[in-house]
Amino acid sequence: MKIIDAKVFIGGPAKNYVTLKIMTDQGVYGLGDATLNNRETLPAAYLQDYLIPNLIGLDPRRSEDIWQFFYRGAYFRRGPIAMAAFGAIDMALWDIKGKLANMPVYELFGGLSRDGAMVYAHATGSDLEDLMDSISHYVEQGYKAVRVQCGIPGMPTASYAVPEHKGEGKHYITDFAGIRPKVEVWDTDKYLRYMPDALAEIRDRFGPDLKILHDVHHRLLPREAAEFAKAVEPARLFWLEDPTPAEDQNALRMIRQHSTTPIAIGEVFNSVWDCNRLIEDELIDFIRIAVTYGGGITPVKRIVDLAGLHNVRTGFHGAPSHSPISMAAQSHLNAWAPNFGIQEYLVLGTPECDALFPSDHRMDNGMIHVSDAPGLGVDFDETEAKRYSYKPGSHPVVRLQDGTMWNY
Ligand SMILES: [Mg+2]
């Protein structure tokens, strides 16, 4: 059995999804997602210029060897561009493997471990009352877990994932006005003074059962993050996300020494080497690596297994930059993983998105139910794809009030 061709498509409804389709000489094909948010053309170029010419003629069933061939063969290892490109190939090869076995991919991991996988939605508000309305909207739809972000009084601009005006609802981060990013201005002191009481009010309003998550989005220094994690303990968060920039693994030790608030980190990680110490030293509670930037199912499943040995649960990244293909790959891991925690989920299910990526994966009452179709259980409509093309866009950058560049 041989790979005879592979194609890359860029585009989608309100997103630049990078979709890989690998064709075989037996008519079976596989799909993968290489979408690297706001840098989408780069993994696409890596696939087209280097990886696809080397894929042609290989046996698609040898997914482990093909992953090692590209990872070790590149000499310069890791990095989100390369890992997203490898990730798309790996997903497509697991898709082919499942179709050949006539089994959903989760069966190849060890089968279902649960009936459905809990997800969390994104509630957001220009101020706390606006946020309360947004949380109610999701609770009424049956969501059991909600990430909460709101405007901070006196903050110079709207900050991460917060709308500028009341009632704007969704805020999808990427701005397609052009390639130059908007600037958000950040004030740590105002955030630290306001947010702990706001989270406690949300807990009071919605009672003990709602799972409340909050994303700091890398804005704090390690000592500030430790202070904040301790200050939000009365809100009993399900998790506190990305309290500090992820590349400093020592920062997480400082937080752990001062607080029992559960910590989730890793959406920008692309290798086990970004998080092995965090997992082995049990400094985090949830690992957020994504199957796309993490290099595909093959390496991410190894991280899930390592995490399981140390009581670290999964909480895969699921921003709208993930196409339904990588969300499907993560859904298969979520269905199987004994240490599953939660899945981030932003509504992908628009009619346009469903038409481009038809599937039987379904969301019901705050839970994802994985399709039992062979492979990843998601298809790609090439006729529909002709409606879309690449649109340049950017997410904001962050500066302090004196102009110092800060962490987005
Ligand atoms: Mg996040």
Automatic annotation (TrEMBL):
Gene3D superfamilies: Enolase-like C-terminal domain, Enolase-like, N-terminal domain
Domain Mandelate racemase/muconate lactonizing enzyme C-terminal: 128-262
GO terms for MF: magnesium ion binding; mannonate dehydratase activity
GO terms, biological process: amino acid catabolic process; carbohydrate catabolic process
Coiled-coil portions: none
Family: Belongs to the mandelate racemase/muconate lactonizing enzyme family. GalD subfamily.
Name of the featured protein: Starvation-sensing protein RspA
This protein's encoding gene: rspA
